[in-house]
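Milestone 3.1: sequence recovery, worked example.
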């Protein structure tokens, strides 16, 4: 029933000229009446009515429905809960312009993703709409559901939508969510423990303008290093690196030193490289001669983040005969971080499929305080490069990049203009970040 009115609601589509537009409002009085009736039907005693209404609201993806729908995230019927979670995701997931067909922009609909798939797609999958606290609180409660498949969807959805919080709102939500999330690290289900570690790593990831992570979070992740499931241990290591928990350095170092196989210590070494404690310098230097390409790459990354402690010359000398592309790219990252070298080699790697994600990670780290380094790439003839620049500067969150991304919002290529428009809108909402 309700899906028939979705075309009569003036939904705000996410296009470059309208990123910061106000929430949509019903186009007609009739639409308002039907919408009001649909909201009333969410409270029906009949589960089938609630489910049918949810599906209609999900199809419309109407922002004003987010709070009423949140009441059904903790519904007594599993099917209703799952539909409510999916509806919330559909409201807040961004659409994406991927190109042009017959002269018109091609819009990728993202509303069919599971919560886990949406989480793994990264933070740019979220639109710029503010997620109400009622939605986040309901998801956190539903993550305690006795049905594991419902709990997992709710937890991953929380991880997706919580990433839209910034500043004091983010810190406040982190504080009230800490007990729940650390508690999930002790769940009977290894899938729940993995999800908890992943969500913590994303939601509590270190930001230069924020205080260090609360020890209760770091200590819970430290305890998870003893989990019986190796996948949970790996996710906990990654999260420790993401939150940069200094107290984990000794335990992670012991894990690296205890491993005999060349590839074995890479997860613990990666966590140490992200924490970037000066006490890890000797370990990183030792790993520069590892037989593992992954370990050599991560060791370079760790040294690259230790300005004032590590020296570029030491890295270049140890790896002067290096052939692996991944390690060479890491050395370019180190040259940029330690010696202010140009980002040319990192930028060129963005169009190499095997190195793209690695280069992108490095450039997000390099960007804060150094937006001018991207000037040439922002004008690159390759549309892929211009899109990458817009997205990297969005993720870097440095407001000083606005003059660089503003022209991209008017780019002739619709996918570039979409990425540029999102960057402009996001950076206008974000405070300036210090250089990394």
């Amino acid at each position: 029933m309700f899906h028939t009115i979705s075309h009569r609601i003036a939904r705000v589509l996410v296009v470059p000229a309208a990123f910061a537009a106000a929430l949509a409002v019903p186009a007609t009085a009739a639409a308002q009446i039907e919408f009001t009736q649909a909201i009333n039907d969410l409270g029906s005693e009949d589960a089938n009515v609630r489910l049918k209404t949810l599906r209609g609201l999900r199809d419309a993806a109407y922002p004003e429905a987010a709070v009423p729908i949140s009441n059904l995230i903790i519904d007594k019927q599993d099917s209703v809960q799952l539909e409510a979670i999916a509806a919330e995701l559909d409201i807040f997931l961004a659409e994406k312009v991927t190109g042009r067909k017959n002269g018109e922009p091609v819009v990728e609909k993202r509303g069919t993703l599971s919560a886990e798939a949406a989480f793994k797609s990264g933070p740019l999958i979220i639109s710029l709409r503010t997620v109400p606290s009622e939605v986040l609180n309901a998801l956190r409660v539903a993550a305690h559901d006795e049905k594991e498949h419902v709990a997992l969807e709710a937890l991953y959805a929380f991880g997706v939508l919580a990433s839209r919080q910034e500043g004091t709102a983010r810190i406040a939500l982190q504080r009230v969510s800490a007990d729940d999330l650390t508690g999930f690290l002790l769940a009977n289900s290894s899938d729940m423990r993995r999800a908890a570690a992943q969500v913590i790593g994303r939601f509590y990831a270190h930001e230069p303008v924020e205080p260090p992570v609360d020890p209760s979070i770091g200590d819970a992740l430290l305890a998870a290093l003893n989990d019986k499931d190796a996948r949970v241990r790996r996710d906990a290591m990654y999260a420790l690196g993401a939150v940069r928990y200094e107290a984990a350095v000794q335990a992670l170092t012991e894990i690296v030193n205890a491993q005999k196989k060349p590839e074995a210590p890479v997860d613990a070494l990666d966590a140490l490289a992200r924490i970037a404690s000066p006490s890890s310098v000797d370990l990183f230097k030792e790993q520069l001669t590892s037989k593992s390409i992954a370990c050599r790459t991560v060791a370079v990354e760790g040294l690259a983040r230790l300005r004032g402690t590590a020296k570029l010359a030491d890295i270049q000398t140890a790896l002067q005969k290096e052939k692996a592309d991944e390690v060479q790219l890491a050395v370019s990252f180190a040259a940029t971080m330690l010696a202010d070298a140009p980002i040319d080699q990192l930028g060129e790697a963005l169009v190499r499929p095997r190195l793209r994600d690695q280069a992108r990670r490095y450039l997000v780290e390099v960007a804060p305080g150094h937006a001018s380094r991207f000037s040439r790439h922002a004008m690159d003839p390759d549309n892929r490069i211009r899109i990458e620049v817009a997205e990297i500067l969005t993720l870097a969150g440095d407001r000083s990049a606005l003059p660089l991304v503003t022209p991209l919002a008017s780019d002739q290529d619709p996918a570039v203009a979409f990425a540029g428009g999102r960057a402009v809108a996001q950076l206008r909402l974000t405070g300036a970040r210090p250089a990394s």
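Residues 1-130+137-148 form one domain. The longest helix spans residues 167-184.
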